[in-house]
Amino acid sequence: MKARTVRLWSVVHTWTSLISTVFLLLLCLTGLPLIFHHEIDELLGYAPQPEAHAGAARATIQAVADAALAADPGRVLTYISWDKDEPGIVMAFTNNTPDGLADSTTVRAFDAVSARLLGPIGVGPMLIVLKLHTDMFAGQAGKLFLGAMGLLFAVAIISGVVLYWPFTRRLRFATIRDRASRRVVWLDWHNLIGVVTVAWALVVGLTGVVNTWAELMLDQWKATELASMVAPYAGKPPPVHLASLDDVVARAKAAAPGMDIAFIAFPGTAFSSSHHFAAFMRGDTPLTSRLLRPVLLDGETAEVADTRGLPVYLQALLISQPLHFGDYGGMPLKVIWAALDVLTMIVIGSGLYLWVARRRKRRPVPADAFAKRAPVPS
Fold first, then answer.
1. Burial of 348 by CB count in 10 Å (0-12 exposed, 13-18 middle, 19+ buried)?
2. Hey, what's the torsion of the CAs at 131, 267, 275, 99, to 10 degrees?
3. By C-alpha distance, which of 295, 239, 303, 231 is closest to 267?
4. Which of 209, 230, 227, 236 is nearest to 316 (CA)?
5. Can you tell me where the transmembrane regions are (predicted)?
6. What is the reported pLDDT for 375?
7. Which of 83, 186, 231, 240 has the maximum number of C-beta atoms within 10 A of its C-beta?
């Protein structure tokens, strides 16, 4: 590679890394506890646990909905969801109105068998960590900003890979020059750890970028696919009396054989129309359990109005989410994700140190420096 090309890639690597450094350290620091957020919530007592019901029949979904409304008088149900990793719990979302602000949402867990209230969800210190990691408490603008930092991080990784060979071609792989200066030793460690973590860092960085675009993707889906699904019912008033949720569940499962319900969106919410329920179905394999298929049902009769698969860009979003946090392979994968996160922080920190050390080395010496240190003749 020509020296001029190497210098150009070096400039790209340096400045994309420097610009994103502070925010990448924030993302790595907050991302580390989020890998274990289920375990931390359980340890701190913020994770409701289902009751023990050996062989007991599950409560009807309508019974859970009635319990949720009784726990939040004067509010309305907006969503009911099921965590595939915690089948003994049903989560109910309530708000002041169907299209109320997200910050006004209350999420509570109910026992899937007794329909008894177990406690709130989404409270405690991990909520603060999650907000810092996703948008820095700046809403959509914060998400897009962090997405831009993620793209810079990806460019820094790619440029680092391009520079690896020119700077290490005379060294054996994994060589650490212990007898060299401290700066050279740090450079060798920076290069080695960077190469070890390059694939993981690129995957996590790019999936994080995709996640910051989630709201934009959902808005696009609602403006196109969902609008097409509800077009035949344009002008139809909101339902006066909602259909039984048990009927909604039964008909949604019949419309999507072999699939189970991930969550139900009530009429008037962001994921449905003013007149329809939307049941989002998922498969039972490791891959299909991450992909959703919406089934639109009449709000008064529970009759199926339409069903279709999600577009490719939303499927990519759904697949990227578990990849980002490594929460699809149990505790062993979480430990690996955490170790790689720590190593990435070392790469980022060592890169910052190398830049500062290089600046100090290039700093010009004042003209009178030697005169001040020179001995005075007698």
1. buried
2. -50
3. 239
4. 209
5. 12-36, 144-165, 186-210, 335-356
6. 46
7. 186
What is the number of other CB atoms lying within 10 angstroms of the CB of residue 104?
12
Q: What is the pLDDT of residues 208-251, one digit of tens each?
A: 999 999 999 999 999 999 999 988 888 788 888 999 999 999 99
Pairing state between β 276-282 and 292-298: antiparallel
Give per-residue pLDDT as tens, 254-265. 999 989 999 999
Query: What gap in Å lies between CA 352 and CA 272, rounded to an integer?
Result: 47
Q: What is the pLDDT of residue 378?
A: 36
Q: Are 13 and 163 in contact (CB under 8 A)?
A: yes
What is the SS3 assignment for the chain?
Answer: CCHHHHHHHHHHHHHHHHHHHHHHHHHHHHHHHHHCHHHHHHHHCCCCCCCCCCCCCCCCHHHHHHHHHHHCCCCEEEEEEECCCCCCEEEEEEECCCCCCHHHCEEEEEECCCCCEEEECCCCHHHHHHHHHHCCCCHHHHHHHHHHHHHHHHHHHHHHHHHHHHHHCCCCCCCCCCCCCHHHHHHHHHHHHHHHHHHHHHHHHHHHHHHHCHHHHHHHHHHHHHHHHHHHHCCCCCCCCCCCHHHHHHHHHHHCCCCEEEEEECCCCCCCCCCEEEEEEECCCCCHHHCEEEEEEECCCCCEEEECCCCHHHHHHHHHHHHHHCCCCHHHHHHHHHHHHHHHHHHHHHHHHHHHHHHHHHCCCCCCHHHHHCCCCC
CB 115 within 8 A of CB 108: no
- pLDDT at residue 365 tops 70: no
Length of the chain: 378
Amino acid at 93: F
Which residue, 188, 197, 198, 199, is CA-closest to 350? 188
What sign has the CA pseudo-torsion 287, 291, 295, 299?
positive
